[in-house]
Amino acid sequence: MVSASLQFFAFILALFGVFGDIAATLLPNWKVNADVGSNIITAITQMQGLWMDCTWYSTGMFSCTLKYSILSLPIYIQAARSTMVLSCILSAFGICITTVGMKCTRLGGDTDSKNNACFAGGICFILAGIFGLVPTCWYTREIISNFLDQTIPESSKHEPGGAVYTGFISAGFLLIAGVIFCSSCFKRQQGAWIYPPKQHHFPSTEQESNAGYSLKDYV
């Protein structure tokens, strides 16, 4: 019952991680213009994402421009695109697999098949968390390095946006869910190895029949 509750808790964390991962991939506020210096126009907020750049005016108008050219983008944005998409795909696969393998569901067949499915789903969550954590760290590093660079004008400096923090939190949820799923299956298999089923030895009928003969019957 305890392992089933842990698996359900891990499944809820994985759902939050999947939704956050998709939201972080699509949101345009991976970096926003830094409000530093005295010449910054505070009536305009510029945001840059993986797929589009958006501008928000104080009047309430909102305009976005898609990034059509892939080769013109920096390497870290190209890597962030591919890894975030892979993270979303792997986390979606993990949701489907763990739905079959959890103890609280009636899918997946026998106990061994459900354990294997849970373990495979946990591996998918761990890989999805790693693929989601790498681009957010790399993107944050580029933002911080440009912010600390003295040669870049203050009007061109940016700060990490909400999508970056959403990606960090989602990756953490996916990693925790994957570890819980894998550890729950591993503990059960380890217990089966440490405490193997006892084998009952019964005396053979041949030995009993031989023991019944008396030596005095032989001449």
UniProtKB/TrEMBL annotation:
The keyword Cell membrane applies. It is a multi-pass membrane protein. GO terms for cellular component: bicellular tight junction; plasma membrane. It comes from the Eukaryota. It is found in: Cell junction, Tight junction; Cell membrane. Gene3D superfamilies: 1.20.140.150. Pfam families: PMP22_Claudin. Keywords: Cell junction, Cell membrane, Membrane, Signal, Tight junction, Transmembrane, Transmembrane helix. Residues 1-20 form the signal peptide. The keyword Lipid metabolism does not apply. GO terms for molecular function: structural molecule activity. The chain crosses the membrane at residues 75-97, 118-141, 161-182. Belongs to the claudin family. Claudins function as major constituents of the tight junction complexes that regulate the permeability of epithelia. PANTHER family: CLAUDIN. This is Claudin. It comes from Molothrus ater. The gene is Cldn20.
